[in-house]
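pinging the channel bc i need a second pair of eyes. not urgent but kinda urgent?? the chain im working w is below, pasted from the shared doc
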Amino acid sequence: LGQGMLQDFFMQANGYDLRFGNQIIGITSQAGNYQTSAFGSSNYTGVNLYIDNEFAYNIHGFLNLSLENAHFDNYDVGGGLNYTGLPVAYVPHTTFNVGLYTDYAAGNVDWEPRVWYQYTGSEHMFDDNLNIPSSQQMPAYGLLNAALQARIPMQSGAVHEWDFGLSVLNLLNKQYNNFEWISAGGYFVAPQSVGAVLAYPGSPRSVFLTASAKF
């Protein structure tokens, strides 16, 4: 396409339906020791979408979107207990990346700045106390990221090109948890920790510098 704001427009979409059988799910004690296993099968269905477009001269936008639903067709822990239909823990329903990038030459240097937003939707936690996926969900979170790459071609010498990169992840230093679970009381040995939601915090603002040479 090449009309209006749709220049070099590209879109790709696909759907899937995946079924996993003969799954073994380990069940542990409060101290983390193996006790027994649950057995089950699960089903993952979803849609992936990718879009890239040139909104203005040399300014590109992109979107990666995934919508997914995952649940157990069967989840049997024995003793007459069966949790068929429960969601699979830690599978977010929605994830996407959306951003802008461009490239331009200034002097002898090719610059490519890029900014993008990464979103992870809510996802069910696992309940270590009941040994099943919980109806409670982790909150969704989104992170803003930015990067700048510089390519410097060399006219002589053994090195043909230098590449330098600067990436800043979680640019706004957002506080979030990237993993949460419902405790069985073994992590903190205290009665009040049974059933409590514990978490690992996500990474704070992170800065990465890279350099490479092409010979």
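so The chain has a mean pLDDT of 88. and The first strand starts at residue 2 and ends at 3. — does that match what u expected or am i reading it wrong
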